[in-house]
Structure formats: C-alpha cells, structure tokens
Design goal:
Layout (H helix, E strand, L loop, with lengths): L7 H10 L4 E5 L11 E2 L2 E2 L1 E7 L2 E2 L4 E3 L12 E3 L6 H13 L6 H12 L7 E3 L4 E3 L12 E3 L3 H4 L2 H4 L16 H13 L4 E5 L2 H8 L10 E6 L13 E5 L4 E2 L3 H12 L6 E5 L7 H16 L13 E6 L3 H7 L4 E2 L24 E5 L14 E4 L4 E4 L4 E2 L4 E2 L8 E3 L4 E3 L3 E4 L4 E4 L27 H24 L7
Parallel strand pairs: 11-12, 11-15, 12-13, 15-16
Antiparallel strand pairs: 1-4, 2-3, 4-5, 4-6, 6-7, 8-9, 8-10, 13-14, 16-18, 17-18, 19-20, 21-22, 23-24, 25-26
Length: 489
C-alpha cells in the first residue's frame, strides 16, 4: 500500500468536512472521445480548480499518480494545442522514464536466477535488482546481499526497500497481524481467487504455502511499483496504475487480469485494494468500476444482479465519500495496521489507533472479527464491533467510527465524537475551537448540503456566468492593446 500516513491529520480534516474550501477536483472532459495526454504514469486526469462558491473555467491535465509536480511535472491546459516538436519531446521523455527492463526480460531473468546455486544468487540493495553472474562486475561497488533463498524470493516486500516519498508512492505495508487476519478471513469466506490491487504483502501471504502443500487460493497483484516485476511470472503480477486503470505492459497484462477475474465464470473471486490515502476517491472509484465491468463480462445474464465482492481499505473518515460511489458498502470496525509506521499500530489507544478500516459489500454478519483483539458481536446490529463501540438506543446502531465511545447529541439527533460539543451558532456539533465561519459541507457552487459541485443544478448557470466574465475581461484586455497611444501634450 502506498500511503502518506504522516499527513493523516490534515487528510482527516478534509475527509470529515466532506470537501476542501479550495483545491482541485476531477473533471469531465469536454470531448469524452478524445484521448487524454500521456505522462510516464499513463493517461493523465483532467482537473478543475474549485473554491468556495466559485469554479475556475479553465481545466488542465496533470499526472494521475503524483500529487507533487517535483515527482511528475506534467501540466497541460485542456484547450492547449501543442506543436509536433513538443509532442515528440514528451514521448521521448515518457520512454526514458519507463523501467529499464521489459516484463518479458524480467521473467527471463527470474527463471535464470532460480536455476543458480544458492551461493550465486545475489541481490543489489543499491539498485534493488536481482543479479545474474553477468551483472556482478557492473555492481561490484554496490551493497550486495548473497545467498538469496527461495523463501526470500517469495517475500519480496521484505527484500525491497519501501518507497518513502510521502507524496507519491510512500509504502506502508500490512503488519503480519493484519495480513494473516485478512488472508484467513478470505479463506473462511470461501474465496478462491484474490485480486490484490496495491496490496503486495497480502499477495505474498496468500501465495505462501509449506513445501508440498497446495494452496486453496490464488492471487494476482496489480501494483505501480515495477520492482515486483522481477519476482513474479505473468500470472502473478501486472504493473498497474490504479488511478487511471492503466496497464503499463499493454493488452497482454490486461488479458491476464481479465482471465483472472472471469475464471470459473467470475465465481469465487474478491478484490482487495489498499490505495494511497492522499489519493482522490473519485478516480479510484472510476477505476474500480472498470474492474467490476471487466468481471461482469464473464457473468451469465442470470447473474447480472451480482456484485463483485470488494474489500477497500481506507481511513474511516472517507466513509461518506466511498459510500457515495458504492452505496452497498459498509465499514467494518477492524483496525488495519502497518509494519513500518511508528504510530498506527495495534494496541494503541485514542488518536494513536490506526484510522484504517475495511469498506466492503460482503455482508457484515458473515465477517468474524477476532475477540482476542478486542472485538465483540452486537446482536442488535448483527455485526462485530470494537469493545469501545457501544450500541446507542437512540440511533439503534453501534455508532463509533474511530475506536472511542461516542455520545449522543439530542440536538443533532445523532452520535458524535467525545471531543465535540454542540455549537449554537453553527447548529451542529464540532470541536470547541472550531471556526463558525469556516467552510461547510455541500456544494461549492450554491452551498446546498444535499449534493456536490458535479451534481449541482446551477452548474450550467455558474459556467455561463464565469464564461461571460472571462469574455468581458478578454474584451477589455484586447481594447487596451488596440487603443492608439496618445501623444504627450
């Protein structure tokens, strides 16, 4: 999983508010049939700048995967026309940024590597690359690990350094506790195939079997980290960008994924995904719906009502946003924690607990959470909840989201966090030091709380008004430029 977890505090503010006072949103292209320009991470996304009550009229393309332009500086206005020279330069840059080895070359090297005697199996820590004897001289001055066992090859996430660029591909990997729980849960629910989207450690756990044993589950890893290409054959890994549904190795990789989803007419498969927490929910939801559509292609007409089972692992404060795209999803109380993060680990209390939860369309009453880790079954809600999550008779639900006991506000008619108080000015509960004049939930254009900007009935009026203002400014600018200069007296 790639997730900038050190900025979860600011992300929670955004998630709880439902939106930001200003920022960017994914936009629909003016011409849906026109292909998006490409950056090294595949097709770019179209964005629009938005702020309270106002929407910029000029849209732009930017990288789907990188939030920091230092990591990918692609930028192009939607209506911008590029010269042939610039297009050629861009294509050359995109090619230079691709992995040094093709998928086929990685597979050939892996097959050669496992045939080597143990003493000759070396891994370059400096280059994060498996080495064949022909490579040794080139890497002679680098930090090398020798005697790489088959067991180590089956756990590449422990061999590779986690990427730590917090704004791009920061990788925080499932702790063994969470990884083993997830693998065990999937097996108990009867799934035979797991599509692991950005979950390399779960992929490893599923594929790990004792010598001579046959696994009851298969898995396929889709991940943007191309380093995994050197550890898996075709049926084990696809280099993939989950923000734009882009398979870097083209149609061949797409067919691998399609065959995996549609095997046995789509029966017995589940998708488990752990996206970057800093990523926008909307492009992720669009991608997941494309994977769902791919799965549905293998369904018979009698099964058209079925849903692809999904576990979407994400912070609890994005619940409203996720359920907006997937109304059948429900959030589980299980706290997912990570190996290489100092704060969010099992056993901590209060705000140091992991904020990461599982959103799923699998019925909650079928999912058993471990009692030894502090979960109990609520007979009224018919689901497992954390011990601190007490059933509210007024809401008729176990209402806590963050592992603390929430309290019922009779003025708001709902349960709220224990640190919140009712504000008579805002007529709702909030932190005691909140700003009453701060941004409220709802639409950027009209301010209504029952819809977002993209569904606003006034969006056409807003666009026409902004367009008129822009034309008026343009006319004034042209007039200034064309007026003859007056002679000085």
């Amino acid at each position: 999983m790639a997730a900038p977890m050190d900025c979860l505090e600011s992300i929670e503010d955004e998630g709880c508010a439902g939106r930001r006072a200003s920022g960017v949103e994914v936009a629909l292209p003016s011409d849906p049939a026109a292909p998006a320009p490409l950056c090294p991470h595949g097709p770019t996304l179209l964005f629009v700048k938005v702020s309270q009550g106002k929407e910029e009229t000029r849209k732009f393309y930017a990288c789907s995967a990188c939030r920091d332009r230092k990591d990918c500086n692609f930028f192009q206005w939607e209506d911008e026309k590029l010269s042939e020279a610039r297009l050629a330069a861009r294509e050359a840059h995109n090619q230079r940024c691709q992995p040094p080895l093709s998928r086929t070359q990685c597979i050939e090297r892996y097959l050669s590597f496992i045939q080597l005697p143990l003493t000759q199996r070396k891994f370059c820590q400096s280059c994060q690359q498996l080495l064949l004897p022909v490579d040794w001289r080139e890497h002679g001055e680098h930090q090398l690990s020798a005697g790489i066992s088959i067991t180590q090859l089956r756990r590449p996430s422990q061999l590779l350094y986690p990427l730590e660029n917090k704004k791009t591909h920061a990788q925080y990997l499932f702790a063994d506790r969470s990884c083993q729980f997830l693998a065990g849960l999937l097996a108990a629910l009867g799934f035979r195939r797991v599509l692991c989207v950005g979950t390399p450690r779960l992929h490893e756990q599923i594929r790990l079997t004792a010598p001579g044993e046959k696994s009851n589950m298969k898995s396929l890893l889709l991940d943007i980290d191309f380093r995994y290409s050197q550890f898996y054959l075709e049926e084990g890994f696809c280099h993939y960008n989950m923000f734009n549904h882009h398979f870097f190795d083209g149609k061949a990789a797409l067919e691998v994924c399609k065959a995996f989803l549609q095997e046995e007419e789509g029966e017995g498969v589940i998708m488990v995904t752990d996206p970057p927490f800093g990523g926008l929910v909307e492009p992720l939801a669009i991608t997941f719906k494309k994977l769902i559509a791919m799965w549905k292609e293998g369904q018979s007409k009698d099964d058209s009502h079925k849903e692809l089972p999904i576990f979407w692992i994400f912070p609890y404060f994005f619940e409203q946003r996720i359920c907006q795209f997937f109304p059948s999803f429900r959030m589980l109380d299980y706290q997912v924690d990570y190996d290489n993060h100092a704060l969010y680990k099992h056993g901590k209390t209060g705000r140091k607990q992991s904020p990461v939860r599982i959103f799923t369309n699998v019925p909650a009453n079928k999912i058993i959470l471990p009692p030894e880790e502090g979960y109990r079954f609520c007979s009224l809600c018919q689901r497992y909840v954390s011990l601190e999550n007490q059933h509210c008779a007024h809401c008729n639900s176990c209402t806590s989201k963050d592992g603390r006991k929430w309290s019922h506000c009779f003025l708001c008619n709902k349960c709220v966090k224990p640190s919140w108080i009712h504000c008579s000015s805002c007529n709702c509960c909030a932190l005691s030091d909140h700003s009453c004049s701060g941004p409220k939930d709802g639409c950027f254009i009209c301010g209504a709380s029952d819809h977002k900007r993209s569904n606003c009935p006034h969006i056409g009026t807003s666009r026409r008004a902004n367009k008129a203002v822009r034309k008026q400014k343009q006319r004034k600018s042209n007039k200034i430029r064309t007026e003859p200069l007056k002679d000085n007296p």
